[in-house]
Amino acid sequence: MKKLIPYWLVSPYILYFCVFVAFPVVFSIVLTFHSWNIISPMKFIGLDNYRRLFQDRLFWQAIYNTLRFLVVHIPLQIVVALALAEFLNQSIRGKSFFRAAFFLPVIVSGVVVTILWQQLLGFNAGILNRGLSALSLPKVPWLEDPGIAMYAIALMATWKNVGLYVILFLVGLQTVPVQYYEAADMEGATHWQKFRYITLPMINPTIFMVVVLSTIGGFSLFIEPYIMTEGGPLNSTLSAVMYIYKQAFQYYHMGYSATLGFFFALLILGVVAIQKRYVEQEI
Amino acid sequence: MKLLRYTFLILAALSFIYPFVWMVSASLSSEQGIGSLTLLPIDLTIRNYTTVFERIPLGRAFINSLLVALVTTGLVLVLGAMVGYALARLRFRGRNLIFYLIIFTMTLPFQITLIPNYITMVKLGWVDSYFALIVPFVMNSLAVLLFRQAFAGLPQALIDAARIDGCGELRIIFQILLPNIIPTVLTITILTFMGLWNEALWPLIVIRNESTMTMPQMVTLFSVGGRADAQLGVKIAAAVMLALPILIVYLFFQKHFIRSMASSGLKD
Q1: Which of A45, A244, B8, B215 has a 20 to 30 Å separation from A197 between CA atoms?
Q2: ipTM score of the complex?
């Protein structure tokens, strides 16, 4: 009897794992070989879903959009977060005030941030364009130009998340031994040299974590473009999750949608694995 | 150098705070006044808020959100503590296997389970019910790992003494050990509650019926659908009401919020 206690305690996890992890993964693979609208019976169609996926221009557009998002979002996130953390890590008054301020957008729902930024990015009435006008610079069609809209969303996502990464970098900066800086001071190193040759290599693991977290976050992009642009203009902000969602819940292509989800998940795992390998080599 | 640093930090802080202040002020302005960049409302009015409540059942959505977030967070704490305790303190066959399953679950992208999980909800007849919003989230891998770590750090003497006094395992977990790991409990509570309160995608998938919708879902549909009638003030007012509860909690527990994020990101 006593021997059973541990199993009784972990049984909720096992049940959860079977229903919400193991079954979905297996079923998702089965679904990729079927055509199904949820109402009529499932129809086996072999590899047709995969064939279709490779010819689906819109899906590849969605992946390309995600990549354009990441290319701007990740470097911007790292540079801004690291700069803010570096400044905060000095002896500064009101440190906790600044930290709390940077963290503000992190805790608020993406829905709120998106509605807010929709106003900030407006072409005529938006605050950003008013600022540009005031400096007599040309206005930017943030959300109207297919070449720009995704980058505008990347800018917004950076604003939303950067506070979290400031905190992570602050934790990382605190792990650098003070002796290194003291030794560098003796040698007469400049601020920049200390940053480049001591700080940067020492916080490599944190940078890696930021890259992985923003990659995964970028791959799950949904609510921001859904509210802000509904995928437009010209599908330039259509994200992969949004496309998976549309295939399932607008067209009821459950089999095809599951195929997209499955393929996309493999892609994410692959990208993260490559990032990991690359960083392990670096260290 | 010092001046430059402060200027930079203050400008940055303003860029994070100002939009929120503007949002509140715009929500209290007349439609004509919204375009302005001032920090005080123009033609102060609560018309935008009354309009939101006329058009959508936001009060109901608030209660739904609160109920779902509270019940689910409670269950995450109870179930997470049980599993975490077993993994940290008891020896049994398959313990490592369960640990690896948890790690596997955490690395699995949600995109793969999204459609099958929706189908499970359909087959169970849970679409449009609270079960669909609660049950898939009652177990949380990160919470289990955080509990496991916290329980592992406690002295064995605490457990031994309780056993001699005749405590059962559940009493040991919830009455003896839990009070000793309050920071972990707080971290898990904050992370779980915040995640649930802000979750928009899953409700959009499993809920069609307005009376079961959560706040983020309701506000999303309101602002994407036609019901806001392109009235900015009304949309912004809805967003303010979605943000307000979590902002108030944040003002009180700010330190804990930040600490919980920092620690959860770094462990394991």
Answers
A1: B8
A2: 0.91
Counting as low any pLDDT under 70, the low residues of chain A are 1, 280-283
Q: What is the DSSP string of B1-24?
A: -HHHHHHHHHHHHHHHHHHHHHHH
| Partners of residue A34 on adjacent β-strands | A44
pTM reported for the whole predicted model: 0.92
B157 backbone dihedrals φ, ψ, rounded to 5°? -55, -35
Are the beta carbons of B206 and B126 closer than 8 angstroms?
A: yes
Q: For residue B128, give both structure tokens.
A: 């449009």
Cβ pair A28:B116 closer than 8 A: yes
Question: Whole-angstrom Cα distance, residue B113 to residue B168?
Answer: 37
Q: Is it the case that residue B268 has pLDDT exceeding 60?
A: no
> Helices marked H in A90-175 — which ranges?
95-107, 110-120, 127-134, 149-174
Torsion angle of C-alpha atoms A245, B204, A16, A215, degrees rounded to 10:
50
In 3-state terms, what secondary structure has residue B243? helix
Contacts of B236 (CB under 8 A, 6+ apart): A115, A116, A119, B23, B26, B27, B34, B48
**B103 contact A CB<8A:** no
- How far is the C-alpha of A30 from the C-alpha of A36, rounded, in Å? 11
Residue pair B81/B147 in contact (Cβ under 8 Å)? The answer is yes
B166: left (phi over 0), alpha (psi -120 to 50) or beta: left
A261 in B contact zone (CB under 8 Å): yes
Residue among B79, B144, B232 whose CB faces A119 most closely: B232
Distances (CA, A) of A40 to A27, A49, A105, A253, A256: 17, 18, 45, 12, 15
